[in-house]
Fold this protein.
Amino acid sequence: MDPPAIVQIESLTTDGSLNDLQQPVRIAPGGHRVALSYSGLSLSVPERVKFRYRLDGFDRSWSEPVSTREAIYTNLGSGSYRFRVIACNSDGLWNSAESSIAFTIEPVFWRTWWFQLSSVVALGLLVLAYIRLRILALARQLNVRFEERLAERTRIAQELHDTLLQGLLSASMQLHVANDSWLRESPAKPMVNRVLQLMGG
């Protein structure tokens, strides 16, 4: 029986551009065509080598056995991924040692933590500004109503004061007329004089 096939990931391309596999692979945000090429080394019949692969973070399970030597993914979302591949030889013996590579697709700017935090802070400031403006508007309305009521009460008090003063003046004048028409010996005269003194007349 032949030994298991040896599998190796050879390249990772993004929209046809090669990525350096010696460095952590970071892919710019946006919809891309990510292609992973791999090969299998078998001592017997290399063209009969089969592969199974999966992309952790995207695939739910391993692929069906395939003879193609490339896996293609399009429009992957932002996040961290790990591509894993295993191979089997012509006898159907799967190797236990997989080949894998990790890569990250950067998030678009509106999905970054700093943009989301800035958005929350900006929204909070807008809400606070709206509440402050609303409170100021309500305070202005209350102030206007208070001023209107105060003006109305002042007007009513002035009218009452004027009416009362007119009544007192009229009563004072009538008492003066009555006092002047009474005889000096009239018993009511001292009382009327006292009232006129109290009224300031």
